[in-house]
Structure formats: structure tokens, C-alpha cells
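User: Sequence in, structure out. Go.
Assistant: Echoing your sequence, followed by the C-alpha cells.
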Amino acid sequence: MIYDGKIFLEKDLFSLLKKNFIPDLQRTKKTNSSYDCYSTKFNLDIELKCRRTHYDDLIIEKSKYKSLMNRCLDLQTIPVYINSTPKGIWAFYIAEIRMTWIKKNLPKQTDFSKKYHIKKDISYINIKEGIDLVALFP
């Protein structure tokens, strides 16, 4: 498959991952969960993010990170953060990445009605710290 710079929705990214990499991938039942999907075969809990614009440094919110890390510590699963941008798809084993937290004014929600800004604790993860999934496509 050649990655064509598509801007994914999370459901599209989920389908692509299930088809090409993680056949047993399952969605979480809750919509406000700290993770979006999981694999029992590979022992993964995964947070998905789809960006409309490419950035070499991708954002992860501290609240999402902490919730995912706590879940993974409790269940002994591997926390993975997967981001798509128009230039590619990267997977990060976030337990192996040192986070530096900063406060930044960002939209409360990007794709929903709450467009006002709030202070969020975030960290940046450079794409070089991840696995380029596009390079692994059959």
C-alpha cells in the first residue's frame, strides 16, 4: 500500500490498523475512555489521534497519558499512542518516552462544539521517537 497523504478519521485509522497490523483490534465500549482500542493478542491499549495538519512534534495531553499509563500498569498492558497526519502514521510506545510537560492554551475539543480555549498540560513527542507505520505497509 502506498500512503497517499489521506486525512483520516479515527474510524478509518482503526480499520487500517486492524486490516494491516493488528487483526484482533477491538474498539473500547466507552466513548470517553482513556484509550480508543485494544489488542489482547499483542497485549496493547491504544490511544488514536488523527491530525489534519502534519507536525513533526505531536501533542499528547497529560490527562490522556496518565489515564492510559495507569490502566496499563493495572492490567500489565503496553500503552501505545498512534497518530496520523497527512504525511504519515506513527506509533509510539509511550512508556519508553520521557515526557516534558508544559501548559498551553488549546481548544477544549477540536472536532466538537466546545471550541473555546483552556489551559492543558501537554507534552510533545517527535515523530523520530515513533515507528513509521507507512514504511511497514505491505
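User: And one key feature?
Assistant: The beta strands are 26-27, 37-39, 44-50, 57-61, 78-85, 88-93, 102-107, 117-126, 131-132.
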